[in-house]
Amino acid sequence: MDSGDNGEVRYELKKGHGELFKVCRKTGEISLKQNLEGHNREYQLTIAAYDGGITPCSIEVPVNVKVIDRSMPVFDKQFYTDSVLESIEIHSPLALSIQAESPLNRKLIYSITKGNDFEEFALDFNTGERAFVGRTDETVFQKKNRWMNDEAKIELNA
User: Fold this and answer.
1) What is the CATH superfamily name and number for domain 74-157?
2) Where in the chain is the domain with CATH 2.60.40.60?
3) Percentage of the residues of the chain whose pLDDT score is greater than 90
4) Of 33, 51, 62, 74, which is most buried by a Cβ count within 10 Å?
5) b/e for 110-126, b at 16 or more Cβ within 10 A?
6) How far apart are CA 48 and CA 155, in angstroms?
7) Is residue 15's pLDDT more than 90?
């Protein structure tokens, strides 16, 4: 590691979209100057690093930036729980209503991602309505019910 002026490095955006991005001269951190309007768009930048020597040494590094749409559905509750009677009829809807909103008013698709290992529950992909679709005898049902209550929750994605 160099010392003195040779050990001091400064960074700059050499090429590409200076109207959208800026580079911290001391740290090289890239940040936005404004909101990016196009989602899933890629940008090509070139960042240069210079030392502070009398004859400065430098290097240019290409940086690819890809904008990813990170908006997530918002659920009414963090967790949803429900009880199922042993005598429930197959294909009976469950009373618990799951509500989610899309921040960009996009169509939501619901799925069960965890806690349905015995495939006892079905989910309408469009509405989030759940139904009991499995039939178990009392002993197996108690084991499954205990397993679900003790170790797992049904996790949903929208």
Assistant:
1) Cadherins (2.60.40.60)
2) 4-66, 74-157
3) 20
4) 51
5) beeeeebeeebbbbeee
6) 46
7) yes
